[in-house]
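Our platform keeps sequence and structure together, in a single record for each protein. Such a record has a labelled line for the sequence and another for the backbone structure tokens. This encoding replaces a full spatial description with a residue-level series of whole-number codes. Below, we set out a record of this kind in full and without editing:
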Amino acid sequence: MAWTSVLAIYFVIWWTVLFAVLPWGMRTQEEEGSVVPGTVPSAPAHPRMLRTVLVTTLVAAIVFAGFLALINSGYKLDDFPFLKPHGAPVVGSE
């Protein structure tokens, strides 16, 4: 696999994991009881973006390592069974 493909796949995994990690431990200004004038009450009280980026990088690296292990194990997409739509012909059967 080309290094550009590896980088692109890691970026997609990282970005997806970021949106899963963003709400972890987040408290709103309304929950904290100190809404800054000019902001919405649902804005984060303490964003902690550095922590979020570090956790995202760690989780994405673990997911990406699993992805690489699956790819390098020799499995192909055709090895996984998928349900065929009702009435669809089965390829390879007579």
Q: What stands out?
A: The mean pLDDT is 87. The first helix runs from residue 3 to 21.
